[in-house]
UniProtKB/TrEMBL annotation:
Molecular function as annotated in GO: dUTP diphosphatase activity; magnesium ion binding
Protein name: dUTP diphosphatase
InterPro entries: dUTPase (IPR008181), dUTPase-like (IPR029054), dUTPase-like_sf (IPR036157), dUTPase_trimeric (IPR033704)
Catalysis performed (reactions): dUTP + H2O = dUMP + diphosphate + H(+)
Keywords: Hydrolase, Nucleotide metabolism
Organism: Candidatus Taylorbacteria bacterium CG10_big_fil_rev_8_21_14_0_10_41_48
Amino acid sequence: MKKLKIVRLSETVPLPKYALPGDAGFDLYVNEEVTVLSMGRASLNTGYKMEIPEGCTGIIYEKSGLSFKHGIITYGNVIDSGYRGEVHVGVFNLSDAPYTFHAGDKVAQMIIHSYEEVKFIEVQDDELSSSERGTRGFGSTGK
């Protein structure tokens, strides 16, 4: 099991934790009260700094209840292993009402993913292998 070092910047914010055994994502919390206006966006402080293990990245995802019940979704939330600043969660409020986060509220979940770096090799278009899908894009596989 990999270890994730964490610095808590405020004693009032709970440490991240898995809600249930076997959960892929661990909960992140808000460090301060913030109101996100209808159709607005905000960058929310978590009150944590982390050292994500080498060869991994932390991807921040919505909490299903927040997105389904309140229209709160996350954006731009890739945390690289070399980042040592405070973790922030970018959110959009897609609802028609403001939403207030209070210090200590769950805001999102993070999943630690392993990844591979790739070497880029520039080729000509005819050097790409063919596939069944080809160049068919958005919506091409049906409903």
